[in-house]
Amino acid sequence: MTASAGLASHARLSRLTDDVGLLYGADWNPEQWHPDVWREDVALMRAAGVNLVTVGVFSWATLEPRPGRYELDWLDRVVDLAADHGILVDLATPTASPPPWLGTRWPGTRAVTADGVRLSHGSRNHFCPSSPHYRERALSVARVLAARYGAHPGVRMWHVGNEYGQVCFCEHCADAFRAWLRERHGTLDELNRAWGTTFWSQRYDEWTQVLPPRAAPYLINPTQRLDHRRFASDQLLALYREQRDVIREHAPGVPVTTNLMGFHHPTDYWRWAPHLDVVADDVYGDPADPADVVRVALQHDLARGLAGGRPWLVMEQAAGAVSWRPHNVPKTAAQLRLDSLRAVARGADGSCFFQWRASVVGAERFHSALVPHAGPDTALHRAVVAHGAELARLRPVVGARVPARTALVVDWASWWAAEEPGGPSDRLRVLPQLLAYYRPLWAAGIGVDVVPPGADLDAYDLVVAPQLFLVDDAHVPGLRRVVERGGVLLLGPFSGVTDQDAHVRTGRFPAPFADLVGGSGEEHVPLAAAGVRVRSALLGDGQVHDWAERLRVDDGEALATVDGGDLDGCPLVLRRRHTGGGEGWYVGALLAQDGVAAVVRACLDAAGVAGPVGVRADPDVEVVRRGDVVFCLNASDRPRAVELDTVCGTPGAPWHDLLTDTAVAGRVPLPPHGALALIERTR
Ligand code: GAL
């Protein structure tokens, strides 16, 4: 399955934005408050420009205090109140947090860990995704809500569950895993082949012997673990889909979604994307870490990729501090605004927060909200109001695309397989590699689409796969075609190692691509502390640490070579230029960030890719074009300035800043964490 299947449905966000422009809102949890507070809430929402609230995410015990006894009057009032104030409702099914009665009456609805501990209520997300009772009760409450509110004109979106990600190892899940395996592998013989069960005498001769990877004495079969991760993601998707289908029966045409979490390890979102009417993402950048903005930008580009390039929605972000880090540095008012604008710049048609009003009870009392404990007369809430007004002025970006000629390939199965214990080194981690190759693209203001390895890559001049350890046979032709049709393909270390079953591909690596990159390898070489010396006109001479590979040049070129030691003379960066203009690159080392940047810049030159805007002159200023609007975001806490002629091109053009609704020209100051949203005025 590729991300492109079913993407037309993402156009559905426009059913909301056509009416109200960019969406601005929050999770609203009125069940924690007296109805008098609800009225104050909606008045404050109006004043702040809030036009969307997510209601009911954790209200199961309030909605159904006893099995089958529903109390919905309060929700009727809440939904009507929002609708009367022109605030759209994103109504949630409350199924992430079952009430205590469910797990007490039916203990099998509670998840079991890999070491056999059955989880208790008292927190949230303690359900077993395969428990028939859980699923039946979850569907019942979803059906009751859908029947009651499906035709309500104020309910404009549905939100199923919350941040799916739980994994369970109980007997129900073992049965469901076996059914999933039968579907994938057909016969037990094929399962034995795929899992390589000749190793350590693991051969199965009855399906009932096949188990999820529960606690075991030593390393567990890697393909069993890989298939179990695939299964666990699909099982959660099945839960989402069955509730979505019930909602669709009662609310045809109203978009249904759930909140994703970016690079969330347990869930393969490429498989989820076709089933989401709107891609909605939860984004929690760390305001204490100035470098985290790059990771957040990458997460936004992933969300846009999941939406097939169409607009997506930030479903949750913090307004100030979170309460789940050990030391919760709050965002400043400027960061609240800047983070929200970064998402809009990268394709979001809405910016929502967790949560509207700060809770005074429960585990998240110290999490920030749009209305703090101290109330609306606070710096934070004033920033919320001001931001609502400027989002309303960004209507020209609604629906607009972010242009990109560069693709970054990301694959969950490969990520899972590459980090399986029992590999050559635990120092080669997938997300840091993705970031290392993305960072120079971000720094150069290059538009990047994040895509799955099976995507149609024909629109891209440069395709970067920072780490594609596992390569599905089905994806090989599409990746090869990049070079064959004259594009540039850059592969990072430890790529092209296994097939889809995580079986090592024999021969020289990167096995399916060695001829494209003009060289090949025979040994992965985790390095001792001193590392190896490398000579390179491209990277500059220096040291490589942690990871190298024993490569040789076949019919390409070496752009960096080991100097001394056992790997003396081995190339670490390979390139082959093909007739027709295509280039294949392979980096067989964990290069320092400068080295990765030099390689990426050379690939951009080879592909003829420049930023969608002019020169990005200042590394602190993130420049992103979306449609006709150029966003300049000062990611630093220092004052900066933007030379419009350099950044935006078209010297002397009359520019207008949508955020302040003023004309700007020449050198425009950007305060710490400041932002501009520039549009060229017609002369
Ligand atoms: C999210 C979750 C919210 C809230 C928030 C706090 O992961 O969906 O319910 O817990 O984190 O940051």
Structure commentary:
With 683 residues, this protein is an alpha/beta fold. The chain folds into three domains: 3-167 and 255-397, TIM Barrel, CATH 3.20.20; 406-607, Class I glutamine amidotransferase (GATase) domain (Rossmann fold); 616-680, Sandwich (Immunoglobulin-like), CATH 2.60.40.1180. Helices cover 31% and strands 19% of the residues. The protein is built from 19 helices and 27 strands. The strands form five sheets. Strands 5-4-3-2-1-9-8-7-6 form a nine-stranded parallel sheet. A nine-stranded mixed sheet has the order 11-10-12-13-20-19-18-15-16, sandwiched between helices. The protein has a five-stranded antiparallel sheet with strand order 21-22-27-24-25. The radius of gyration is 26 Å and the shape is globular. The two termini are 48 Å apart. The relative contact order is 0.09. The structure holds beta-D-galactopyranose. Beta-D-galactopyranose binds at residues 162-163, 282, 284, 316, 322, 354, 364, 367.
Q: Enter the CATH topology name of the largest domain.
A: TIM Barrel
Number of strands: 27
Mean pLDDT: 95
Major sheet details: 9 strands, parallel
Helical residue percent band: 25-40%
Short description:
It is built from 19 helices and 27 strands.
Keywords:
disordered N terminus; Rossmann fold; globular; alpha/beta; Immunoglobulin-like; nine-stranded parallel sheet; 19% strand; 31% helix; binds beta-D-galactopyranose; nine-stranded mixed sheet
Topology:
Layout: H1 14-20, E1 23-28, H2 35-48, E2 52-55, H3 60-63, H4 73-84, E3 88-93, H5 100-105, H6 132-149, E4 155-160, H7 171-185, H8 188-195, H9 222-250, E5 256-257, E6 259-260, H10 269-272, E7 280-282, H11 292-306, E8 312-316, H12 333-345, E9 348-353, H13 379-392, E10 406-409, H14 412-418, H15 430-443, E11 448-451, E12 462-465, H16 476-484, E13 488-491, H17 514-517, E14 519-526, E15 532-535, E16 542-544, E17 547-553, E18 557-562, E19 571-577, E20 583-587, H18 593-607, E21 621-626, E22 629-634, E23 640-643, H19 644-648, E24 655-657, E25 662-664, E26 667-670, E27 675-680
Parallel strand pairs: 1-2, 1-9, 2-3, 3-4, 4-5, 6-7, 7-8, 8-9, 10-11, 10-12, 12-13, 13-20
Antiparallel strand pairs: 14-17, 15-16, 15-18, 18-19, 19-20, 21-22, 22-27, 23-26, 24-25, 24-27
Bound molecules: beta-D-galactopyranose.
